[in-house]
What we know:
- By secondary structure, the protein is an alpha+beta fold.
- It has three domains: 8-120 and 164-212, no CATH class; 228-346, no CATH class; 351-533, no CATH class.
- It has 13 helices and 26 strands.
- A ten-stranded antiparallel sheet has the order 2-3-4-5-1-10-9-8-6-7.
Amino acid sequence: MNKQKEKLAITLFKPKVHTLQECLSDYEIEKRATIKPQFELEGEVLIGAPPPIPLVPEWLNFLQEGVNEKLPDLENKSSRAAIIVKVKERFVGVSFGYGQVLFDKTKIERNFGLKTVINSVDPDNLRSFNSTKLDDNTIITRKQASRGSKRSAFGSDLPSELLCGVSGKCLESVLGAQISGTDQLLISPRVDFTNLKEVLETALAQYFKKDYQKNFAWFDNIQIENDTEKCEQLCADLTKELQSGKFEQLSMACPDIYDPEKIGGFSFTLKGDLHSDLYFEEFMAYLKESKGASLISVDDLKSHKIWVKDTQEEEVGKWSAFDCLIYETELDNVRYVLFKGEWYHIDKEYLDVLHRYFDTKTQKGPETCSITLEDHCDGDKESLYNAKIGSQDDCLCLDQKLIRLKGLDPIESCDILTSKGEFLHIKKKYDSAALSHLFAQGKVAGELLISSEGFRKELRKKIRQVGRGKINDSLIPLGKVKSGDFKIVFGVIDKKDDDNLNLPFFSLVNFHSTGRYLETLGFEVIITKIKCKAA
Length: 535
């Protein structure tokens, strides 16, 4: 008899789970039945209890309002069932309907489905990618192809993003024709209980393989740490760091993007004093002075709110202090970053690559560019600083001098343009989001300088309007551009009183991606620190 295709949603439980009972949530189970011995599967079929109160569709009352006749009584049906069996000394669950609610979420192996997929999928026959960009306001993206495609069809930024899900053609026939997964593995093999053990053993074997390192090597670069015990240990270590009074590894950043020119400052209470920037040292000083808190814990940071206000001191947002915290540490020789309230673990080799690239592109002193980048005065807006720098000979301030092209958002070519062809992009080191804007500005302007004659024409107009003869507009050719004649300089205004520029981890990721891309276009790329002096 031909076996029917069955949709299987497979979950793997963590190694520390030693009994079937530990796999279960507190959801009520109506029926438990042991699997027949002839199928050689140690485990049970579980049927979850139906909802105690029938679920009436929310839209039913809306429809009833539109007619005189009484509509039939309708109920949403939501069945819950699962299989939990032991496979190769690990417990594996297969859920049906809403059966996932029967599993204890703290006991499941994160990324089981994703890792099984990238070990089993045809790399030339991919259908979709789910990824998360971490260097900006967190963006989750799903890219789907109309037909099986190579990875390159989904864009070049994937290695700098957190891989969340993949689907495509499966190379393991036992698992079916198509495969997809995140935490769960989703497959549709031809299966019944006579070969269910083979299917589950194959899935588990694929999970433990390292084949993905050939085509998805970047999967190991950045991953959310979902091990509850490790996260608890990291939070405990963070509490010790907070109570030590040594804050070198701690900083604060806004979890959301905002326009610095429209922001009046940050307050540690709803009606409190405004701070021009968000600095961890100032926040801790406030806690100690106002609350007499000498021993600050992670729980304190999670409960305390920080407000952002506009120039009229009206509230425009608030976050927990914990969500604003950026912290890098090590646990068991693994590098971790706390960012937007999540712990991430970082591959050491990948981290080394980022730092080596950053070090080679960091310049200090006169060799940075042909003009003097004097210290920024603390409290000044970026626009005021740019205007001061742009007042020098042989350069122009093009800050907020937007170029408008049909079909594109307004574009800022740079903050400062020098007669030597240096495009300076300058930003305060608020957070990864602000630096992301900085790097994006340089990337877009560099692309358009090469590819768009319209952009070059508009830029020449800006030079004539603003420059008044300081720079000849012929600096920007109308025809083909020799990118080697131009340099892109990223200037980061940093309040810390030393010569070294240190970026948050995800800004390192972004700079590496942006810098390498601009270099493929032929530009020279550098980054430099602009010191911040007291007002």
